[in-house]
Design a protein that fits this description.
The chain is of the alpha/beta class and about 325 residues long. It is built from eight helices and 17 strands. A hairpin with a 4-residue loop joins β9 and β10.
Length: about 325
């Protein structure tokens, strides 16, 4: 039986995320290779714009407006909508490697008993079973994993596909919300807008990252300054996050965000394997570190051996001069 792949899309500020567009293209290609089909799901308080944007990449999109999201977390409701589509014939569910995506994948795994293939960077078919490729050990090894069953959940990492629009947009089907989720949705008691988060790490074209070498929370002032001058976003290594210098939402790595910017600039980041797992897809990597043997040197396009508190201010001065101020 031909597979039907469901892309559970994510919306940020009313628009489709870059990662969701990439996953839509990934799913469309995989569905075509297996002689199947792909459908998208957009669930939001106001899903109309995001649904139309997703329809540029998939032939069919289900759009669900849910007022419950004003006061409850998203993932249980998204899992309920995905479950409804599974009952209508969906055989595989694809979500992003994000906090919300992981939550949806875990909920569906628990409710359905389906297997999960994580961190996909590629996929193919063996009969009715899906085979996922994932890069591990900071890109040194590629694993191949399979769920020997006609159903599976796949989490897809950034850069698994280059988003490519269809020749003509697909159809958008509007639906009322499904029944209450089988797993209770936690209430949202407060919403706090993080400073400097106008553009998410996953969407940013430039990411400036601080590590243990910045020495403390005050050291991120330089990281923030360079990010602003370059029109980018501030990120951090796990060491900096664990030290409490910067919020967890800024963490890049195996247990944080996965980024694929045009420019990745790191200051005082050693580049341990777990961190590199979250940024190895960056197009251009520049690293500043006093240690000439820092692991990040292995993947850096330009490795500057020096004190970040000397190199960073000099770079900021030059950037300001080029901007005329």
């Amino acid at each position: 039986m031909a597979a039907t792949l469901l892309v559970v899309a994510e919306i940020a500020d009313g628009h489709l995320t870059k990662l969701s567009a990439e996953i839509a293209t990934f799913a469309a290609g995989l569905a075509a290779a297996g002689g199947g089909s792909a459908v998208g799901l957009v669930l939001d308080e106001a899903p109309q714009t995001g649904a139309q944007e997703l329809a540029a990449y998939l032939p069919r999109v289900v759009s669900v407006a849910s007022s419950a999201l004003a006061g409850e977390v998203w993932a249980p409701h998204a899992a309920a909508e995905a479950h409804r589509l599974i009952n209508e014939g969906v055989t595989h569910v694809l979500v992003g490697v994000t906090n919300d995506g992981r939550d949806v994948a875990g909920l569906l795994c628990g409710v359905l008993g389906w297997g999960i293939l994580a961190n996909a960077s590629g996929a193919s078919w063996e009969g009715d079973a899906i085979v996922v490729e994932a890069t591990v050990l900071a890109g040194k090894t590629i694993t191949r994993s399979i769920v020997d069953a006609p159903n599976a959940i796949v989490t897809v990492r950034a850069g698994a596909a280059e988003a490519a629009e269809l020749p003509a947009p697909g159809a958008v089907e509007t639906r009322a919300p499904a029944d209450a989720p089988s797993v209770p949705a936690a209430a949202v008691l407060d919403r706090v807008a993080e400073a400097g988060a106008e553009v998410s790490l996953e969407e940013a074209k430039v990411v400036v990252v601080g590590g243990r070498g910045v020495g403390g929370a005050e050291g991120f002032g330089l990281v923030d300054e360079l990010a602003a001058l370059l029109g980018g976003v501030t990120g951090a290594s796990r060491a900096a996050v664990d030290a409490g210098w910067i919020p967890y939402a800024r963490q890049i790595g195996q247990t944080g965000k996965v980024v694929r910017p045009s420019l990745y600039l790191s200051l005082g980041v050693s580049g341990a394997m777990q961190h590199r797992a979250g940024m190895q897809g960056s197009q251009n990597v520049i690293a500043v570190n006093r240690d000439p043997d820092a692991p990040i040197a292995e993947i850096a396009d330009l490795f500057v051996i020096g004190d970040l508190f000397e190199v960073g201010p000099a770079l900021a001065l030059e950037l300001r001069a080029r901007r005329g101020g």
